[in-house]
Design a protein that fits this description.
Blueprint: H1 5-39
């Protein structure tokens, strides 16, 4: 398999996008838990 710089950039962008999405979901969970904690 021939790996070009374009393929590497695409893989890096895809990985960053996936990590960002998971991190954003994690932030939403923490934020939701924090609101529930304040309201209790």
């Amino acid at each position: 398999m021939h790996v070009t710089s374009h393929n590497i950039v695409t893989m890096v962008l895809y990985s960053v996008n996936a990590i960002y999405h998971q991190f954003r979901v994690f932030i939403h969970i923490i934020h939701f838990w924090y609101i529930c904690y304040l309201n209790s």
